[in-house]
Design brief:
The protein is α/β, with parallel strands linked by helices and 206 residues long. The chain has helices at residues 6-29, 48-61, 79-82, 108-127, 138-143, 149-158, 175-180; strands spanning 38-42, 66-71, 90-95, 132-136, 164-168, 183-186. α4 packs parallel to α6 (149-158).
Length: 206
């Protein structure tokens, strides 16, 4: 019968416990997604950006790092911009002007900003700094001809496996984007207070 070296067993056990404890601490400090997916929220209904921001809030609650890249928006008093300093792991970067851009008034400057925003989003996806990247109003920028379908598809395909990507905006969805996405929700407007003369409200709509 082989006699066990009790001290050696004890040392091996202590080492294993220390390794498990270290792994647990690392997991708590640096949570991550094992597999990131792609979301698209589009349609004429209100709430596409709000859906994305709700996911961002949940992700931050679990310690995930979130980057929101807003195209066509240059309005720093939006609620999501103002809360950055108070919400850990949450960052918003805008690429737009204070005037909301429609297809008819999109100029060269706006187009340059939209392309710069898409480039920033792609860099953020690949940087290893973020677990969730949201490209807000990406589909509107596409519809307005400010960025191309090929450019968006390239960004979607460049997404690392462990990063979640969320695209919002637009009325229509190209088939190619539909095929690449994992979650696709068509937000349809049935009623909106704007049609009764109620304007956008601070804290609710922006």
């Amino acid at each position: 019968m082989v006699k066990l070296d009790e001290k050696a067993v004890e040392r091996a056990l202590e080492k294993k416990i220390a390794e498990i404890k270290s792994d647990c601490e690392k997991s708590e400090k640096h949570p991550h997604l094992e597999r990131g997916l792609v979301h698209v929220y589009y349609g004429d209904g209100r709430g596409k950006t709000s859906i994305a921001l709700g996911t961002a809030l949940r992700a931050c609650g679990h310690g995930l790092r979130v980057k929101v890249v807003q195209l066509l928006k240059g309005i720093p008093n939006l609620g999501e911009c103002k809360v950055q300093d108070e919400l850990p792991n949450f960052e918003v970067k805008q690429f737009g002007t204070p005037v909301y851009v429609f297809n008819k008034n999109a100029g060269g400057k706006e187009r340059e900003q939209a392309k710069a925003g898409l480039s920033d989003a792609e860099s953020s996806l690949k940087s290893g700094k973020y677990d969730v990247v949201i490209i807000d109003e990406a589909m509107y920028a596409l519809e307005f001809g400010m960025i191309s379908l090929e450019e968006i598809l390239s960004v979607m395909k460049s997404k690392p496996r462990e990063v979640e990507l969320i695209l919002t905006g637009g009325r229509n969805l190209p088939r190619e984007i539909l095929e690449l996405a994992d979650y696709v929700s068509h937000v349809v407007m049935e009623k909106h207070p704007y049609n009764r003369g109620i304007k956008a409200r601070k804290g609710i709509d922006f």
